[in-house]
Sequence to fold (576 residues):
Amino acid sequence: MLGLSISACTGGSESTPPAASAPVRNPVDPATAGRVTGTVTLIGTPPAAQTVKTASDPNCTATVKTEEVVVGADGALQNVFVYVKDGLGNLVFPVPSEPVVLAQKDCMYRPHVVGLQVGQTLDILNEDDTLHNIHAVPERNGEFNKAQQFKGFRNPHVFSTKEVMIPFKCDVHRWMTAYVSVLDHPFFAVTADGGTFSLEGLPPGTYTIEAVHEKYGRQTQSVTLPEKGAQEIAFTFKT
Amino acid sequence: MLLHLFALLVAASTALLIFAGGMVTSTGSGLAVPDWPNTYGYFLWTFPFKGWVGGVFYEHTHRLIASVVGLLIMALAVWLWRAEPRGWVRRLGYVAGAAVITQGILGGLTVLFYLPDPISIAHAGLAQIVFCLTMTIAVATSPGWKRGYAPGGTSADDRVLQRTALITTALVYLQIIVGATMRHTEAGLAIPDFPLAFGHLVPPEWNAKIAIHFAHRVGAVIVAVMTIATAGHVLYHHRAQRALVRGTVLLLALVTVQITLGALTVLSGRQPIINSLHVVTGASVLATILVLTLRAHRPRFTAEATVRAARGDAGLRDAGRTVAPGDLTTRKSGARA
Fold:
């Protein structure tokens, strides 16, 4: 069954349309899974990070820098959400029981960009000695605005629909933003210090990989992954 | 006289509330307090001062001022009910009370539904109505109104002035609604230059936000022209009427300030204080032209009251009420004035 489904999603069997196939649960076979790794680079002069004026809240004592564009050595672009946009067909993946934590710490959202699966809990936590609100502005999921009165306050939230780069705001501290992506599979990553990402445990197949940045937009690439294969790709954004 | 002073205080506090509301929108703090009617789970008046930070400061302050203004307007309505002999003035108090309650509910709904444009614009529009109602009560309870403004007891019954002032009042209100639509649809910088639009008299390209913004600029020109027309009429035909001339001079000054603030709002990239001053000055323009309109219509109140008194259907409802000395002429000629 697993083999048939993978064959269908990779286009190997024209007689069995993917839409007609029954969903396949827990489809990843570690013996055949591979990975897609790569880097995201920014060409051009990035805007310098600005120090944010936090005087409107005396409890925000840490230095806050803007995170819209964070670039490391050799143009390595951080905070890019990279994920499998297409190619998984009707495969259905288990939802992790572990929550993903989005913290409000030092009057910033930590991390700035994060991903999780539909049905997985996003655990939003106030780690500051001040109050915050959590204001999510999705397009496909429902908008919500919740209070976080004090340090240690938690607001668990579960998304019901996949959606990439949902803006999160704190209206108390206007400079605080984050982006949360919700997918129906586990193949996503956020670029780290070196602009690197890794999508591990992918079944063999042909995939569309998309990289999304809050300022520089979206790019896609197609990649074919053989059994136990490893592919490396690179995305390049321009200022 | 005390009632008039109290009505003036209520009107002034309403203007302060409009400024505070402008600061909420200008700083983008409308959702900084997610709950309503509570504030972060606290009753409004017990919310700890430690939490008055960032956007919460603007939203919470707006709510506190709103609650005080609400109580003041309710007190004014009760005072009018107890002491005001003229039925139409008492009814103004009741309408103001109902309007401020509705206004509070609209404010809560716009928070709970994440600032939908129609509710937010209605909230901004009703704020002006509440302000106008308090100003009308202040005018109607003033000594000048009771004696008919002119030393002899009546001012000129100028139908042209009455119509011009009334039309200008309606246009100013419409202009404020367009302005509120511009604010709440975030079209305030849709045209980033001033006085031109993208370097042209008319924008070379259009979308909904540019259209709303440009409509507000065209509205400003229309209001300015109508203000000058009204002012010219007063200064030419009613130079001896101090009540009209004072209002006209103030109106001209406020419109000048308002257009300047509008330009500065664009050129400063919507600096919050400038932006909010633009909002409250717009309300002041509306209140001033409204007062001018009421004063221009003052002779008609006396005339209609005289007709009703002659018919024998006026004043009877108010029998037994205490009449202030300033109301004696009113009582003799009927209940309308």
Q: What stands out?
A: The radius of gyration of chain B is 22 Å. DSSP finds ten helices and no strands in chain B. Residues 152-314 of chain B form one domain.
